[in-house]
Amino acid sequence: MKIVIVDYDLGNVRSILNAFEQIGISPILSRDKDDILNADGLILPGVGAFSHGMKNLHKYSLVEVLKDYAKTGKVLLGICLGMQMLLDESEEFGNTQGIGLIHGKVIKLPTKDKNNEKLPHICWNEIEPKHQNWNDTILNSIPLKSDMYFVHSYIAEPKDDTNILSTTVYSDYRFCSSLKQGNVYGCQFHPEKSAKIGLEIIKNFVNIAKEGKSV
Length: 215
Fold this sequence. Notes:
By secondary structure, the chain is α/β, with parallel strands linked by helices. The protein is built from six helices and 13 strands. The chain is globular, with a radius of gyration of 16 Å.
């Protein structure tokens, strides 16, 4: 079992490494093409600005490698900024092109002044199903309305909303908090920082990687 966390000099990878180690898995932190393509499961982490993240991915020639990995049908999970970069583009600090594995764009999370709710959205918040059944996904057996830990100001808007796996409400706005297209997953929340339930999501990811599922 080989789990690889993409190393592109951006993202709090220590907490992700710790979470996997808690369930008995020792991931590899790497930007090597062979390591990535030979992984059974791949994590794309990320904290920070979309443009900075894409700049670093291009710097290390990782965009095409990630596209090639996705074509293998093996499971890929983007976390926070890593999820957002799976989409076509972002409006953060001007328009920046993403990896384009899932059609859609990244926009600023709308908020209402009357609610006195500010950005970034930093809190524990509930996830709820959208269209997709959570069975046989990274959210398999996760109780509905489980609280996950969020830290972000921008959100992913997939072009096809059937790609939305879960939604979350902040300042009266319902946004995509996780998504799935075939073997490609994304979580806007941080499963590695979401206590016991978050570890269950990571276990589900590992189980999918072990089984080699692509859908």
